[in-house]
Amino acid sequence: MRLTIEMFTMVIAITISTILLASIISSSNQIYTAHDFYDVVANRIEDSNYSEEIIENCKQEAQNKGYDLTIKDVTLNDESPSKFIKLSYKIEYPIFGMFDERFTKEAEVKGYAR
Question: What is the pTM of this model?
Fold first, then answer.
């Protein structure tokens, strides 16, 4: 009987650990995807020589993916243009979805395209 209880406890502990690890991996993937999108936006803006058309396309794509993209012109002189890029996104923790709770956290990536 003791062996049965120990095995049952181990199975429950392993199940809970697996669910927690899956939740951590999922939230890490969300963060990685947002950072990757930020890098793509910064490179597109730099490669297009700060084209307004490309900037609007990037904003539209960010909105379609559920991100909030803000781009401001912070150019000090015409020889070296610069744009401030801020990407805001939400991280969802799936572990709370099991209990009918939606826990999200706001995060940001900030930087410059020069």
Answer: 0.83
